[in-house]
Specification:
Radius of gyration of chain A: 24 Å
Number of strands of chain B: 2
Number of strands of chain A: 2
Radius of gyration of chain B: 24 Å
Strand content of chain A: under 5%
Oligomer: heterodimer
Number of helices of chain B: 15
Strand order of the largest sheet of chain B: 1-2
Helix content of chain A: 55-70%
Strand order of the largest sheet of chain A: 1-2
Order of helices and strands of chain A: HHEEHHHHHHHHHHHHH
Distance between the termini of chain B: 7 Å
Structural class of chain B: mainly alpha
Chain lengths: 337, 317
């Protein structure tokens, strides 16, 4: 079934004389594209001429910027980055020494020098949100980065080498995926008694599986492409094919997935923090703050619950908006060529 | 069909062996080994050696692995040193409770989500459709621990209709005889599934409505109701089975959160508590059982899917 929009795209592609190869991934022929960036028009593998409509980056950007939710997402993330990293410079609070916090009233409602009140140890909640947010964002970004890089390499190798290696590598992924995420994270967090750095690796460890699967799928379809065959014929090494061709051509999938991964990592950290297995004190994160507030839910100390909860939801939703828009942008770009 | 079954079963067995190997490796990765985890950080080397000898930890690794497999195959999951009880007994107590929670939540999710998705298709692109989409998006975005907390704050503290805790009774009948206490936990766990299932149901139904057989049914004079409920719904509902299988892991992870929010003594709370006490045998035992249950659930969903929809059966074999 073809909807009219697809039809228009197909015709446009035919006009510029580009043949449509079956089973298109989100991003193929990046080599061609990167040249396109510099020269405006090059000869495509099909023999036709590709007419460039402005730069590649600009086109992705324009599709992305048209998506209002994505713009909202970016604004929210920028706000939180400023809030967490610049905020403490403007709004000084003590978030490490409980003894100093002792002088502040515990569980004080908002007002009186504490815009969002204080928690059960007397820490100022507004300041604590900034401080905990640093950890949440840091863990989210780093874990997603490590998971994406490792997952992409793993998947590319598995898909490209094929034969006996592929099923073996994929069964390993299946085995890990069959352990419910939170249980896997709890087990790892208990066995390794994590510091902040170990924590990042624990979360990366439960997050690399999906990208590995996705990129393996891409690699399977890329390995039989003509240009990969050409590299082989010209004597390019297998490492070169994986690193210079398979990975770059899957970069769209990797980036989109990484964005969702950040959201998931922040959520997972919050969940672990909530059940009490978060980053070790005196550090904190939004999930641990929320967990602390729940103990006082019966007393109705709402200021220990709403702010941290709102931060988690806003950041996670924002990253999901951005991920959705990136997916649209990177896929539409392919179709508009 | 037989070929498909055999292949799918073999795959599950390979995955289970992989999980077991991983658990085995983890036990040996504990800093200081199992002995130190049990005897404490200040244990004397002599005591550690004694412990290792008693528990067969001085044997070669492959020998230990075989022992481990042997024990697992006899449902011997080891002993909890902190509770001084066999892990199997602990799991026996808490597993039925989690099954009740997960079962009720899944049931609620299916019973609510499917009519919701169908209703959205009936009223597609009308205000009702948009409102339901909006609500399910919010439910999807709010993590279970926050939702549970908010529900307690609103419906147990501000408006005290429900208790703040789940039923604490040790017997199944005791738990089921307190339905009021189950409302908040079950809804907390079901919320995210309601959101994702109804979204999925809506798009599956929309897709089915464009199929040829729907057009044929219309051409033969079937009324809109008959087309919707007899022809489209029955076909659109099939992929939900796969979705159920795939969501099992998420639901089980959600159960950990729900159980800790509402202090419900199931597998999740057992896992969290043993994590606090660094009771590794219990934690690994619980994880193992939960994983096996998830794999079996997945397997069941796949088989059921192939049974219900002959097209899948032929495509896969």
């Amino acid at each position: 079934m073809q909807n009219p929009e697809d039809l228009v795209r197909t015709t446009r592609q035919e006009v510029v004389g580009r043949e449509i190869v079956g089973e298109t991934g989100p991003l193929e022929d990046l080599d061609v594209l990167s040249e396109e960036l510099g020269q405006g028009a090059v000869v495509a593998p099909g023999g036709g001429e590709v007419v460039s409509h402005g730069g590649l980056g600009r086109r992705i950007f324009s599709v992305f910027i048209e998506n209002k939710l994505a713009v909202v997402g970016v604004i929210v993330i920028v706000f939180f980055l400023l809030f967490c990293y610049v905020g403490p410079l403007l709004y000084h609070t003590n978030q490490t020494s409980a003894s100093e916090a002792l002088f502040a009233p515990d569980n004080a409602p908002p007002g009186n020098g504490h815009p969002l009140g204080t928690d059960s140890s007397g820490f100022d909640i507004l300041g604590r949100l900034m401080y905990g947010g640093q950890i949440s964002l840091l863990v989210g970004f780093s874990a997603a980065a490590i998971a994406s890089v490792f997952g992409a390499l793993y998947g590319a190798i598995s898909g490209f080498f094929g034969s006996w290696l592929d099923p073996v590598m994929m069964r390993v992924v299946d085995a890990f995926l069959s352990i419910p995420v939170l249980f896997l994270a709890i087990v790892l967090a208990t066995v390794f008694r994590p510091s902040l750095t170990v924590f990042i690796f624990v979360i990366a460890f439960v997050s690399w599986l999906i990208p590995a699967r996705l990129i393996r799928g891409q690699a399977l379809s890329l390995r039989i492409r003509e240009y990969v065959q050409a590299v082989k014929v010209m004597g390019g090494s297998r490492t070169r094919i994986v690193l210079r061709h398979i990975i770059p051509n899957s970069i769209g999938t990797i980036i989109v997935n990484a964005t969702f991964n950040i959201a998931d990592a922040i959520l997972l950290l919050a969940a672990l923090g909530f059940i009490g297995l978060g980053v070790p004190p005196p550090q904190t994160d939004w999930g641990s703050m929320l967990s602390n507030g729940v103990n006082y839910a019966l007393d109705g100390y709402w200021w220990e619950i709403y702010p941290a909860g709102l931060c988690i939801v806003l950041v996670v939703v924002a990253f999901n908006f951005i991920g959705d828009a990136l997916r649209d942008a990177l896929e539409v770009r392919l179709q508009q060529r | 069909m037989i070929g498909f079954l055999v292949r799918r079963l073999l795959q599950a067995v390979v995955v289970i062996i992989g999980v077991i190997a991983f658990m085995f490796v983890l036990i040996h990765l504990i800093p200081g080994g199992e002995a130190r985890a049990v005897l404490g950080p200040k244990a004397q080397p002599v005591a550690i050696a004694q412990f290792n000898k008693e528990n067969g930890l001085d044997l070669p690794l492959w020998d230990q692995f075989l022992h481990y497999l042997w024990n697992l195959s006899h449902f011997n999951l080891g002993r909890s040193y902190t509770l001084n009880q066999s892990v199997g007994a602990l799991i026996g107590e808490s597993l039925p409770k989690t099954l009740i929670l997960v079962g009720l939540a899944t049931l609620l999710a299916v019973v609510v989500a499917i009519p919701l998705g169908v209703y959205q298709v009936v009223r597609r692109n009308k205000p009702e459709d948009y409102i339901i989409t909006g609500v399910s998006f919010i439910l999807y975005a709010v993590p279970a621990f926050l939702l549970g907390t908010l529900l307690i704050l609103w419906f147990a503290v501000y408006i005290p209709i429900f208790p703040t805790e789940a039923p604490q009774s040790t017997s199944i009948i005791g738990i089921l005889s307190d339905p009021r206490g189950l409302v908040l936990p079950v809804f907390t766990l079901a919320a995210i599934s309601i959101a994702s299932f109804s979204r999925y149901m809506r798009s599956s139904m929309m897709e089915t409505m464009t199929e040829d057989f729907v057009r044929t049914a219309r051409a033969k004079g079937a009324g809109p109701r008959r087309v919707l409920y007899v022809h489209a719904l029955r076909n659109a509902i099939i992929p939900i089975i796969t979705l159920l299988g795939l969501s099992l892991g998420t639901i089980v992870s959600g159960a950990v959160i729900t159980e800790s929010v509402f202090n419900y003594p199931g597998m999740g709370l057992l896992a969290v508590n043993s994590a606090f006490k660094e009771d590794i045998p219990t934690l690994l035992g619980v994880t193992f059982v939960v994983t096996i249950a998830t794999i079996c659930g997945n397997l069941l969903a796949d088989i059921l899917y192939a049974v219900v929809d002959p097209r899948i059966r032929y495509a896969k074999s």
